[in-house]
Amino acid sequence: MTFKDNFLWGASTSAYQVEGAWEEDGKEASVQDIRPPFEGTTDFKIASDHYYHYKEDVALFKELGLKAYRFSIAWTRIMPHGKVNPKGIQFYNDLIDELIANDIEPIPTVFHFDLPASLHEKGGWLNRETIDAFTEYCQVLFDNFGDRVTYWQTINEQNMLVFASRVLEGNKTSWKDTFQGNHHMLVAQARAMKLYHEGNYPGKIGPAPNISCVYPKTERPEDMLAAEYFSAFRNWLFLDAAVFGTYNHMAWRILEKLDAVPEITAEDRQVMKENTADFIAFNYYNSSTVSASDGKESAAKDQQDSFAIPGFFKGEKNEHLQTTTFANWPIDPVGLRNTAHQIYSRYRLPLIITENGLGQRDELTADGKIHDDYRIDYLRSHIEQMQQAIEEGVELFGYCPWSAIDLISTHEGFRKRYGFVYVDRSDFDLKELKRYKKDSFYWYNKVIRTGGQDLK
Ligand code: BG6
Known about the structure:
With about 450 residues, the protein is an alpha/beta fold. The protein has one domain (about 10-450): Alpha-Beta Barrel (TIM Barrel). The chain has helices at about 15-20, 30-35, 50-65, 75-80, 85-100, 115-120, 130-145, 160-165, 165-170, 175-200, 220-245, 250-255, 265-275, 335-345, 375-390, 440-450, and strands spanning about 10, 70, 105-110, 150-155, 205-210, 215, 280-285, 290, 315, 350-355, 395-400, 420-425, 435. It has an eight-stranded parallel β-sheet with strand order 5-4-3-2-1-11-10-7. Strands 6-8-9 form a three-stranded mixed β-sheet, covered by helices on one side. Strands 12-13 form a two-stranded antiparallel sheet. 6-O-phosphono-beta-D-glucopyranose binds near residues 17 and 160. The site of 6-O-phosphono-beta-D-glucopyranose has 16 residues, from loops.
C-alpha cells in the first residue's frame, strides 16, 4: 500500500471564505471585510455560514470519511482590536472538539489572508508592531488549543499574499514596502515557531506556502536560468527562510535589482536562524513556465499565475497543458509530482499538501444532484501523481484538497466552486444555504475508504 494507514486524507477551507458571521460575537472586521468586493461577486459577510452550520458540516466531513480537516482560525475572532475574545476562543474550542469527537484531525492555519482591519489601518505587515501582535495572537492559540493540535501551519500562502496583495488585500505598494512587509512576516513566523518550540507543546509547526515547479519555455540555457530565478523568487525565498532561516541568494539578487532589499536587524537574523519549521505544508494548483526576460514587464494577474521581472524572467504559456475555465490556470498533475520532489530534495522534511483543487461552476439538478465529473478527473489525476511521488521516496503524510465545502473564492465569487459539498446559494441570493453532496463527495469517500487503492 502506497498510502499508510495513518495517511491524512483531508480537505481544506479558510475562515473568511467559509464562516460568515463577520461581525458577530465580538469579531472585528478583517481586511477582507473592508475591501470592496470584485465586480459581480459577493462580499464575505455570510459566506457558507459555517459559523452557524459547523456541526452539520463536521457531520458531513465524517460521512465523507475525512481523517483531517485543514481550516484557518480568524485572528479577528480571537483578538479583536488586540484583546482576547472568549467567544472567539469558544467557537474554535467547539469546532476542534467536534472534529476530534468525529475522529478528524484538526489542522489549523494561524493566518489565512484575513489581517484584522485595525492592524491594516496602522500599516499592516509594513509596521513592525504587527510582528508583536501576531506573536501575542499565536501565544493565545497555542495556550488554548495546543493540547489538541498536532500540526500547526503558520501563514497561508505568504508568497501569494506578497505577489498578489493587490488582489488579495487591495494593497498597492512598492516592491520595497512589499518586501519589508514580507520580511516582518518571516520574522513573525520565526517568532511563532520559537514560542511553539519553547512552550513544549505536543505537536509540530510549519509554513504553508503555494509552491509550484517552474519550467523553462525552451532548452535554451537562458530560459533555464530564468526558471531558476523565478522558482527562487516565487518558492524558495519563502521556504529557505522557514526551513534554513536564511534568504535565498537568487531571490536576494532580484530584491537588490528591484531596490527592495528589506531592513533586517541582527535580532531578526538570529530569530530566523534559530527557529525553523518541523514540516512543510504546501498548496499546489498549477505549474508555471517562464523564459528569459526581454525587458518588457507585464503585471501580475492573479495569485497563481506567473509574471515578469525585467532582467530575470517572463511568464509563458505552456503549450503542453490544458487550462482551467476560471483564470486559465494550467492543469498539471505531473507538476505536483515534480513539485513534491523538488521540495523534498531541498529540505528533507515531511510534507503535506494543504490545498489542491478545481474551481468550476456546478449545476444543482432538479433531483438534488451535482455531477462534477470534471472535479473527480482533476483530483484523480493529482492523487495518482502524489501516489507516484510517495513510491519514489517523498515523505508525504497527507492530502487536503480545496475545498471541503463550497466557499467564496478569493476574487471570483461564489460561482467558482471547489467543494465536495454543494452549498445552495449564489453570489447575490442566499437561499437557504442548504448542503448537498456532489458526485465527487461519494468518489472521494471511496478513495479514502480504500486507502487510495480505488481511484475509479
Ligand atoms: C489559494 C488560497 O490561493 O487558492 C485560497 O489559499 C484560495 O484561499 C485558493 O481560495 C483558490 O483560489 P481562488 O482564487 O480560486 O479562490
